[in-house]
Structure formats: structure tokens, C-alpha cells
């Protein structure tokens, strides 16, 4: 049996839960190395399917679905994720090695959109999606570059020129 798609599903659901391989391993009593082997399709996760599904808040059938067979359409895309501010304040793929699963519509609005961990801005738990290329309207919220970091502000109240992009959406974590 080809376990590659099962491994990819494990990785997708793990990332949705914002878990590291070590955290998932701890939940099911395995090593992070074994989680890595499952995700890469090197080892079969079938004996651990129930515990993996429970730890990932999904069902075993979700982990078994072959997303490449055309029967299931994935509804998310990977966007660059920033957990720190790049030195040059340029938020593009070449300035990060992290990626986040965003809804497809985010990239349909702007193929250069990126995700930003909210802890970088105000210490809160969540992810924001930012479009550096979308047209900005008077009622929009924008990501602004400040000398000491980043800030979210309404275009109505902001008077400067350091707009890095339009805020598309936020995902809050609890």
C-alpha cells in the first residue's frame, strides 16, 4: 500500500492543529522520528490510525482519503508563514522557510498573500492573512510598518506611507 497520501494527510492535519512532530508524537506515544517517517510515507501509520486521528481531532477515514485521486478537492493552499519580522520587512517566500495552510480564496485574492503569526504584532494567538498587492479601500484594515515593529490599523485613521498590505482575514486560536 502506498502510504504517501496518508502521510501527507497526517502532516496537513498536524499543521492545522499547530502541532510539531514532537507534540504529535507525545500524544500518541511515539517518537518525532516515527511521525516524520509516517509523513514521508517511509513507515505505515495504519497501526496507529485511531490514535493519530484522535490526536489530530479528525477521523481515520479523513486520514485515509487519497486527496490525489480527484474524489476530494482540497480547500486550502500553502502560503508563506512569518513568525518573526524579516530584517528588510519584505514578506515573500524567499524570506521564510515556513508555510501555512490557508483557504484557497486567499491566494485567489492575491497570489503573493502571506500568513503572519499574531504574536509578532500584539502577542495574541492567531494567524492573519495579508495581501501586499490588493487595492486598499477606505474601510480596510492594513498592516503597517513602524520603527519598532508592526501594527494593524484602519486606513481611515492611518496617515503614513508604510503600508505593507491589506488584512484579508484572521484565524484566532484559543
Task: Please supply descriptive tags for the structure shown above.
7-stranded mixed β-sheet, alpha+beta, Umud Fragment, subunit A, 434 Repressor (Amino-terminal Domain), elongated, 174 residues, 2 domains
Give an overview in words.
- This protein has 174 residues and is of the alpha+beta class.
- A seven-stranded mixed β-sheet has the order 2-1-3-4-7-5-6.
- It is 28% helix and 25% strand.
- It contains six helices and seven strands.
- It starts with a helix and ends with a strand.
- 22% of the residues are buried.
- Helix 1 crosses helix 3 and helix 2 (21-28) crosses helix 3.
- The chain has two domains: 4-64, 434 Repressor (Amino-terminal Domain), CATH 1.10.260.40; 76-172, Umud Fragment, subunit A (Ribbon).
The helix/strand series, from N terminus to C terminus, equals HHHHHEEHEEEEE
Mean residue pLDDT: 84
Question: In the CATH hierarchy, what is the architecture of the largest domain at level 2?
Answer: Ribbon
Name the CATH superfamily classification of the largest domain. Answer: Umud Fragment, subunit A
- Using only CA atoms, what is the Rg? 19 Å
CATH fold description of the largest domain? Umud Fragment, subunit A
Percent helix range: 25-40%
- Which strands sit side by side, in order, in the main sheet? 2-1-3-4-7-5-6
Largest sheet geometry: 7 strands, mixed
